[in-house]
Amino acid sequence: MLLYDLVNAKRTHFSPNSWRVRMALLHKGLPFEVRDVLFGDIPSIHSGGDKLTIPTLAHEGRLVTDSWAIVQHLDAAFPDTPRLIAAGAEGHVLKFFQYWVQNTVHGGIARLILRDLHDGLDPADQAYFRASREKMYKQTLEELQAGREERVDAFRKSLQPMRMALAHGPFISGEQPGYADYLAFGGFMWARVSSPFQLLAEDDVVHAWRERCLDLYHGAARQEAAA
Ligand SMILES: N[C@@H](CCC(=O)N[C@@H](CS)C(=O)NCC(=O)O)C(=O)O
User: Fold this and answer.
1) Of 36, 116, 138, 141, which is the most exposed, with the fewest CB atoms less than 10 Å away?
2) Contact 9, 39 (CB under 8 A)
3) Model-level pTM?
4) Dist. CA 122–CA 103, nearest whole Å
5) Rounded Cα–Cα distance for residues 197 and 154 (Å)
6) Are 52 and 21 spatial neighbours (Cβ–Cβ below 8 Å)?
7) For residue range 46-69, what is the model confidence (pLDDT) as tens digits?
8) Is 98 in the pocket of ligand 1 (CB under 6 A)?
9) Ligand 1 pocket, residue 25 CB under 6 Å
10) Which of ligand 1's atoms lies nearest the C-alpha of 52?
11) Cα 184 to ligand 1 centre (Å)
């Protein structure tokens, strides 16, 4: 299997949506190779068809794009490995959690680190990233990130559902990590490799959970250089 993944100028992997898939592959114990790409390379990955995003997984002559579709594909293609997305209602609730991560975790983090992320990108990607993200957020990257020291407390408060879940076990999924953990952790990896800004207080249970996630699978995520 080949995972197409984004890299910045230092060749570190920063995509939050890829980190959830990387953790899923590690959870399942599936070997994979990585093809590093820049934003500017994405259109050349495929020949026609739907627009691809990162992550995209190449497996048995097929390209699977979108992190949720990739994990569903892995569950179906490798039935002897631990399943990450349950069928039926449980899977739908997990999808709801993905939406929460996208809005609250990714949305919150973007407003704290996106200018730093831009500065760390390969120079070939910076103009595209700035133009596309400024259009998306209707603000300059400088405006988006301004005043973050005063705003970080509101972001920390927004993570309260994670603290409530972590009162019941070391992981959001309980005693063992599951896809809910990888969904949220992807956002924190995105921040960790893109910006030195301190997102979490050290006495926060979310901080302790993030450390546990960094230690999983022989510290796979910790090996990625932090900004
Ligand atoms: N829903 C998709 C979102 C993927 C996505 O937006 N990926 C970003 C990188 S993290 C991307 O490929 N962006 C391409 C671009 O902005 O041109 C997933 O979870 O895989």
Assistant:
1) 138
2) no
3) 0.97
4) 27
5) 15
6) no
7) 766 778 999 999 999 999 999 999
8) no
9) no
10) 12
11) 16
